[in-house]
Amino acid sequence: MIRRRVSVLGSTGSVGSSTLDLMDQAEAGGAAAFEVEALTGGSNIARLAEQARRWKPRVAVTADAARLDELRDALAGTDVAAAAGEAAVVEAASRPVDWVMASIVGAAGLKSAWAAADTGATLALANKESLVCCGATLIERVNRAGGRLIPVDSEHSAIFQVFPAEAPERVAKLVLTASGGPFRQTPRAQMVGITPEQAVAHPNWSMGAKISVDSATMANKGLEMIEAAYLFAMPADRIDVVVHPESIIHSLVEYVDGSTLAQMGPPDMRTPIACALAWPDRIAWPAPKLDLPELGRLTFEAPDLARFPALDLARQALKAGGAAPAVFNAANEMAAFAFLDRKLAFLNIAAVVAETLERAMKAGMVFGSGDACSAALSVDAEARRIAGSIIAGLANAA
Ligand code: NAD
Ligand code: MG
Fold it and tell me: Which residues of the sequence carry a binding annotation for NADPH (predicted)?
């Protein structure tokens, strides 16, 4: 039986809700028992309160400081303490637990992931942006505190499961699979008028809005390349990307002797979350299973870098190192949200990232002093300022 005291940061989102659903099912089957210390959400107070009533955490936190009274009202009659604002989210993340799920979206998840890393808990990391911004220092911080970082992103979970951590020299390269997103076969001429509704309609995965846009531009695979480089200490030129539209093979590790190990499963985030929750054990739950005869065949193709330039921009940022990955992340996040707000054309998302990276590198943007989290946050703020002015310029020109 798996027993864990857990906190879920970003519990109201897609990964956060999947985490609680998995916990529910594992408990119902008698495979696990959980106590919840903290749940944090954003502006969906109703969902947060519903989760808090089910799990009875010590504290439920909304990141929106203006919604404290609303949350208190929604929790009336329970023993759950209500808190609000960014500092309260970080405080929740700092509480001692066995396991913490970091599933806030974007650089907004950085401070809380950084705080959780220092508690000695197992850090189940869905928030790839914090790893992209802080790099290996986030992993070092977890290790120094006596904890362990376990990736939740399905590709990295796959690699984690087949990677020989005791002998990394046995690995020739990592191969990340990509679904190709909703526009895998869309001719460039037709990509001009892509709407947010079209972009968030992912063929295989049901996810939050920002990662769905990232998936459509393939910036997500770019972020994941950087994430993989830090997690598995692998240089950019030993990380390949292959498009695999069925999303059944979640990634592969090629060994030096020519053998390649892959991890497979249905496209359901609860499986990599389950892996992170029980590792090195395995937790039984009514997981969806593969039906290979039904699938029939798996297909692969090379990514089209001309239609999806974000992938190559991420590789350049990774090779440049220093502040470049954090700049890539900030510019991409600004551009993705501007696109969702209908203030930027789909094809201009990558253009904003390219231009921001160029300007930041010309200006010699580097990490300042202080810890990696503060340094990354200053770079993030500066890169957002640059990206914001580029986005405004494009809007004025349109
Ligand atoms: P989502 O948008 O569905 O949920 C995000 C969560 O973060 C919500 O609880 C929201 O309230 C909270 N949040 C948003 N802004 C916040 C802020 N400023 N401060 C504090 N909390 C805030 O996103 P998601 O799809 O669940 O993705 C979460 C993370 O997991 C992302 O980093 C994403 O890249 C990663 N991820 C997601 C999936 C997936 O299948 N959804 C797969 C792999 C990795
Ligand atoms: Mg992924």
Answer: 12-15, 42, 44, 127, 129, 208
- Both 57 and 92 in a single domain? yes
- Ligand 1 pocket residue status of 129, Cβ below 6 Å: yes
Q: How far apart are CA 150 and CA 272, in angstroms?
A: 10
> Which structural domain, as residue segments, surrounds residue 352?
322-398
Residues 260 and 225 in one domain: yes
Contacts of 139 (CB under 8 A, 6+ apart): 131, 149, 230, 231
Q: Which atom of ligand 1 is nearest to the CA of 16?
A: 26
pLDDT tens figures, 45-78: 999 999 999 999 999 999 999 999 999 999 999 9
In a domain, 288, yes or no: no
DSSP string covering 301-319, please?
Answer: B---TTT-THHHHHHHHHH
Same domain, 70 and 191: no
Q: Burial letters for 270-290: b for 16+ Cβ neighbours within 10 Å, e otherwise?
A: bbbbbbbbbbeeebebeeeee
CA of residue 30 to ligand 2 center, whole Å: 29
Pocket-testing residue among 207, 329, 380, ligand 1, by greatest number of atoms within 8 A of Cβ: 207
pLDDT digits (tens, 9 = 90+) for 13-44: 999 999 999 999 999 999 999 999 999 999 99
ipTM rounded to 2 decimals: 0.99
pLDDT at 290: 98
Residue 83 maps to a domain: yes
